[in-house]
Amino acid sequence: MIRVSRLRKTFGSTVAVNDISFEVKEGEVVGLLGPNGAGKSTTMRMLTTFLDPDAGEIEIAGYDALDQPIEARRRIGYLPESAPLYEELGVLESLHYTAKIRGLDAATRNRRVDEMVEACGLGSVTHKFIGQLSKGYRQRVGLAQSIVHDPAFLILDEPTTGLDPNQIKEIRALITKLGAKKTIILSTHIMQEVQAVCSRALIINKGTIVADGRPDQLVTQSSTKGCRFSLTVRGAVRERATAAFSKADGVRSVVVEGEVGDLLHLTAVGANDGVADELFRTAVREQWVLRELRLERASLEDVFTQLTIGATGNAGTKKENDA
Predict the structure, then answer these.
(1) What does pTM read for this prediction?
(2) Are strands 14-24 and 55-60 parallel, antiparallel or unpaired?
(3) Which residues contact 277 (CB under 8 A, 6 or more apart)?
(4) Is the pLDDT of residue 201 over 90?
(5) Confidence class of residue 300 from pLDDT cuts 50, 70 and 90?
(6) d(C-alpha 229, C-alpha 78), whole Å
(7) What pLDDT, on a 0 to 100 scale, did the predictor assign at position 317?
(8) Burial of 124 (0-12, 13-18, 19+ CB in 10 A)
(9) Residue 217 neighbours by CB under 8 Å, 6+ apart
(10) What is the dihedral of CA 31, 34, 40, 41, to 10 degrees?
């Protein structure tokens, strides 16, 4: 469906996108993740032919997006971060106007507008002007406009920015529904969004792709670098506890997180989840009361932090970065 090869874009001395390549297959919902300024929006604007790359190739459904931009655009639906809406138009009027611009004949326009009202949950607001709508419904109208011409490929740039939790849930459900029929690239910096709606994640940092895979695969790969344990013991002295747990087989590092009364809270990083047994044996041997021993599962957010900030190999420093 989409093929990007060695794409590069600079703005003056700033390299926004640096020699990236990837493919998106038909039916995939791909999350494009990255911190602010990573190059996500620039990449999307090049995919939609709004920006020309300095170098590289973009192919959309078999069409060269640089040499055949009109053909490429006909197969793309694009919802930018701030949806371009005419507030003085009614909801139906806006959808009909967009469909006409897209070249749909009258009969097809009527059918597609009706389908968009149903698909995007706009039935209760069709009598309103866009200027009267909430942010959530404006996003729904923007999404309806972007797919009214029935494109094969949909690009969504930060589609839930500025929405409240209920609106976010509704838009995510709508994207999931669309994903059953469309190929989608979704730009976001919200990890939960990718885990909720995406079958694959591309993480971009400083204009370069640093990870590509299913969200669960990326988490599993990250977990092989070490397991993190949270411990709470009673009756232990800080220095003694740090030294004793550090000597346990498989333990790479131990950091004291804090003390509350006679309770000592620590974080230990080990080679695998079997280290939990060694930590337990250490507490028993030292005659400390073990109040908690919990394996902290890696998350997509942990992977994102490792790849965009950098893993330090030190649990204490990592904790500071997370904060």
Answers:
(1) 0.73
(2) unpaired
(3) none
(4) yes
(5) confident
(6) 43
(7) 33
(8) exposed
(9) none
(10) 100
Tell me how far apart the alpha carbons of residues 46 and 209 are, in angstroms, rounded to a whole number.
16
Record the tokens describing residue 210, joined without a space.
């640093």
Q: How far, in Å, are 265, 270, 296, 300, 317 from residue 228 at the CA level?
A: 13, 6, 5, 15, 14
Q: Residue 45 CA to chain centroid, in angstroms?
A: 17
* Token pair for 288: 């400390």
Mean pLDDT of the chain: 88
Domains for the chain: give ranges and CATH numbers: 2-217 (3.40.50.300), 221-322 (3.30.70.1340)
* Cα–Cα distance, 221 to 286 (Å, whole number): 34
Q: Using CA atoms, how far apart are residues 299 and 322, in angstroms rounded to an integer?
A: 12
Quick one: CA dihedral 129, 131, 134, 136, positive or negative?
A: positive
Decide if 140 contacts 163 (C-beta within 8 A). Answer: no
Beta strand 227-234 with 200-205: parallel, antiparallel or unpaired? unpaired
Q: What is the pLDDT of residues 251-273, one digit of tens each?
A: 988 999 999 989 999 999 887 87
Name the band, by pLDDT with cuts 50, 70 and 90, for residue 321: very low
Amino acid symbol at 284:
V
* pLDDT, average across residues 71-80: 92
